[in-house]
Amino acid sequence: MELVCPAGNLPALKKAVDEGADAVYFGFQNATNARQFIGLNFNDKRAREGVDYAQSRGCRVFCAINTYPQPSRWSEWTGAVDQAAALGVDALILADMGLLDYAAQTYPDLSRHLSVQGSATSRAALTFYQQQFGIKRAVLPRVLSIAQVEDLAKQSPVELEVFAFGSLCIMAEGRCYLSSYLTDESPNTRGACSPAKAVRWQETDAGLEARLNGVLIDRFLDGEKAGYPTLCKGRFAVGDETYHALEEPVSLSTLDLLPKLQAMGIAAVKIEGRQRSPAYVAQVTQVWRQAIDKARTSAADPAQLQRWAGQLSQLSEGSLTTLGAYHRKWK
């Protein structure tokens, strides 16, 4: 099982490699990847340095070009594919069918992974992408229960990668435009959810208020941990209650599911967090490296699992973790 770790910048990439990542994934400094934030991502020089650093240490490098191209800027997305191919990355992570076709036609020998943004959740969908575009791997959306993942793993024509740890989104991967209603920018179109330029923090008598383009998203009381104001994780008044009506600010952690995922034949587990610090990447990579290595030889003892879970909890949103959709019973 491969450990795939985030690289939002060169220091984070190096930390992930040094702590034992089998692969790292990164994006360019434009709208072609779903994490277009100021200070993140790679220019060509940094990307080349990162690819060399990782591959010289036996770590693979994947390039995420996983937003949906704007019709008037198609060449920006094909240019990113050309750039990644010239850098010698090990695989492209793509979502858009037109771009998958471009990559398959132009660089047939370069591996293509279907991004989580592609939102393929059935054998038929995976087979379509494999037959049409020759994808080698698919990253599964975080909307499937563990039973559904297991069933899909038995039938999949391609390798499967699942999310192991990190922030959750609204579970409509590849289809989320919530942010654009307030900011005119969304992950799937411009690679940015809740862009920093639209975020405002304000101390008030009622507490610390977080606003997105002027709209109140959340209000935090004294001592309450304040999260980044994304629309899906805001607190809203619904009837007589004010609560996280769409999604709670909590992180996914599948540490307990690791032996089961291995038994299913899942090819890779992915750590979310290209927007996180190098220190975060180092700590999460370190824990998951140990957990995967241990699971290969024997079951981790309860005390060890508790220690790892405690370390990950400190790095989670709201210091809380969840199994997300993996544990849901409804279908």
Automatic annotation (TrEMBL):
It comes from the Bacteria. One of its GO terms (biological process) is ubiquinone biosynthetic process. InterPro entries: Peptidase_U32, RNA/ubiquinone_mod_enzymes, UbiU. Pathway: Cofactor biosynthesis; ubiquinone biosynthesis. Pfam families: Peptidase_U32. [4Fe-4S] cluster binds at residues 169, 176, 193, 232. Its cofactor is [4Fe-4S] cluster. GO terms for molecular function: 4 iron, 4 sulfur cluster binding; metal ion binding. PROSITE patterns: PEPTIDASE_U32. Keywords: 4Fe-4S, Iron, Iron-sulfur, Metal-binding, Ubiquinone biosynthesis. Forms a heterodimer with UbiV. HAMAP family: UbiU. Belongs to the peptidase U32 family. UbiU subfamily. Required for O(2)-independent ubiquinone (coenzyme Q) biosynthesis. Together with UbiV, is essential for the C6-hydroxylation reaction in the oxygen-independent ubiquinone biosynthesis pathway. This is Ubiquinone biosynthesis protein UbiU. It comes from Nitrincola iocasae. The gene is ubiU.
